[in-house]
Amino acid sequence: MLRPDGRVFIEVLSQPHTGAWITDGFPIVLAGLEDAVILGQAILDGLERSTYDVYSADELRSRPTLDELYAWAGVRNWKQYTKGSKSVSVYSRYAVAPPTSANISPEERERSGAYAPIDDAYREGVHFESAEELGRLVQEAMNDARA
Q1: Cα distance between residue 26 and residue 142, in whole Å
Q2: What does the pLDDT look like over 83-114, one tens digit per residue?
Q3: Domain of life here (predicted)?
């Protein structure tokens, strides 16, 4: 998520076998979007942190709640959290790290503060050779995203 102040929040999500996507810790924060190598490496780190697994109740309780995320960001709700921000979703399933392809989807912020994919800008199975190349792909996709 590209924040209005120029910072980038990379939100890492994981998916339990039996439930909805959940936050996997607090976002990775970057000073900006300009350095493709740093951006791409942070995204790869986030993808590595993201899992599809069975979680115990203790593991689920150890993850930050939305209220904790809002307090961390200094906002009251999701609408404030996303206000003025642009978002690009990067999704990858892979067996051996690091991934070399991903689905990259620029998103549009809705009035509710939620994000929806921009269908005509969605790119499936995009291949990349390096963190820098992934970073550049996300930089390009951010140009299509809408706050």
Answers
A1: 21
A2: 999 999 999 988 778 899 999 999 999 999 99
A3: Bacteria
